[in-house]
Structures are given as structure tokens and as C-alpha cells.
Amino acid sequence: MTEKTISRRGAICGVVLASLGLAMDFAPDAAQAAAGISTLKNGKLQIALAQNKVLSKIGGSVIVGLSDGSELAVVRVASGVNGFAALSLTCPHNGATVMQQGNDWICPAHGSEFTLSGKLLRGPARQALSAYPLATTAKYLTIG
Length: 144
Prior knowledge:
This protein is mostly beta strands. It is 8% helix and 31% strand. The strands form three sheets. Strands 1-4-5-6 form a four-stranded mixed beta sheet, with no helix packed on it.
């Protein structure tokens, strides 16, 4: 059994929806390791969308480990071929690795919050998560 946490925003939304007779799923899919990754001759990373079905829905994300020990996430932020973002998971405040919680990224060290696309919502961080260049086609995402 995995432990799941509920954000303050999620709890408030849940209470409002419950009062309206609607239900809300408080167990969003956590980011998972990416599959179908290859390194191109130019050093860029290519990810096969067919092997990462979680990216078919908004909020879906996969994690890619980098050679320097850091991680990046590829996130579905909107519908359409260009609806993806590639983000560093290193908090710009102190270097801790942020984690996906619902539709936000949260830093476990000091509580900085970022949107799904990496924009800063709340500090102590003073800037957004770093984004990687990303080219998309219907079949592949190319990072770098």
C-alpha cells in the first residue's frame, strides 16, 4: 500500500465538491520512470510516447534520470502535440528534488510550490523550475 497525501487546495476543493454532491479523486498518478528512452547522436534524449501511456492525459508525467544524478520530468500540461513540458526537478531554492503532488510540484525541504508547467506558486524559491528545450511529434519527444 502506498501512502498518499492531500494538498490544502485538494482538501478545500474536495469539501466544496462533496457539498455539491460530486466526487474527487485525491490519488493522482505519481510520476513514474520513463520508458523507451534513447540517446541520439547529437546527445539529445528521445522518448517514445507509445511506451509512456501516462503522458496521454493532462497531469501525467515521467521521470528521466540524468548522468549528473539529477532528474527531469516530462509532463503533459495541455492537449495536443505541443502540450508537454520538460522540467528540472531540482528546486532553485536549495537543490532538493521536487515531487509531484496532484497538479503541483512541491519541494519537500522548504515547501516551495510550482505549477505543473514549473511556474513558481509559492516560495521560498524565487524562480520557476528550469525548463529544457523540447521538440514534439505525434510519436516522440526530443529533449535538448
